[in-house]
Amino acid sequence: MAKLYFYYASMNAGKSSTLLQAAFNYAERGMRAMLWTAAFDDRYGAGQITSRIGLKAPAHLFEPETDIFAAVALDLASAPLDCVLVDEAQFLTKTQVFQCARICDELRIPVLCYGLRTDFQAELFPGSAQLLAIADHLVELKAVCECGAKATMNLRVDAAGHAVKQGAQTEIGGNDRYIALCRKHFMARLA
Asked: What is the pLDDT of residues 22-34, one digit of tens each?
């Protein structure tokens, strides 16, 4: 039985590089993986998954209305498909997470999702919440806080490096906008 995986972490834990390594491993064995990423995350160019260490690969784009199951089923009709890899999975809708589960259950293709667990206000993203609820396997990737402890929180900062406490849940950015921290230092920076 194919399984639905959710690899989750704070910012800067290597989620995208881990996904790209998985894609490389499938390709190296002559197997085909289908890569997906959020359409509005165009920090490194649309239709591309890029890691901070320079790895990159082309990817299909999903928007809230994208039917991922239908797209995968259509692709599968033309060539064998061994795995589906989804970056920025926190931006999946609840419906899309269930579509990923259907890919596993009905098409018998494993789906590996990579994303943030929580936002800058320590709230679950909708996609992450649904993945935590229904994924077959949950894997926490580790990031490191400035104190050396495990970083589990994402602090949003302004241009001066001050903590941002309010705003839209989604604001695309990298190290210039977010800092991965342990809970203790996250709470201290918000105080």
From this structure: 999 999 999 999 9
